[in-house]
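Hi,

I'm pasting everything inline rather than attaching a file, because the server keeps stripping attachments. The sequence lines come first, and each chain or strand is labelled.
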Amino acid sequence: GQQLNQSPQSMFIQEGEDVSMNCTSSSIFNTWLWYKQEPGEGPVLLIALYKAGELTSNGRLTAQFGITRKDSFLNISASIPSDVGIYFCAGPDSTGANSKLTFGKGITLSVRP
Amino acid sequence: EAGVAQSPRYKIIEKRQSVAFWCNPISGHATLYWYQQILGQGPKLLIQFQNNGVVDDSQLPKDRFSAERLKGVDSTLKIQPAKLEDSAVYLCASSWQALQETQYFGPGTRLLVL
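And the predicted assembly:
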């Protein structure tokens, strides 16, 4: 099946800093999703991207759908302690309503006060 | 609106024992998903239901895992017998339509097999 690659596995930043994460694939995705998972909870959808080149913001979060459709970026500006969590990229592995989601391995973000 | 409910939140069992997890989706959501999330990995879909029918169970280890959604609402996932490698978080999600970006996840059940 399709795979999504996220690295590094962990990131450590200072409160107030900006951080950028990317997600790459060897195959094309038609939708890119970014989730955040906090300890003891399930993933929560942050941003959904549907078109190559699309740039979408949600508060301090900005995500972009890569032109090649094989990558996506998530940026968090002016980080705060509650940004701590695991950030996953995900995408449906084929077109159609019943395609299943493939998730990356996630990036664990730590924010130092 | 109440979210996806799962129980129990934690379970510790010994290998070869059986275990069952329960999920109550968001009211009105026709599609229900069970995922397995091993530590350090993203969630992996085990089974997807549309109402009470199975849409995709291609990644469900059917020799030991089973799931049902008899009345098209609540669902149970069972493991019998459990193996050490089944230690993971089991996430339930639901959506109004079978559109991936509309999935809402529950808090998960953390299973430890000793």
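Chain B has no helices and eleven strands.

If the labels don't parse on your end, tell me and I'll reformat.
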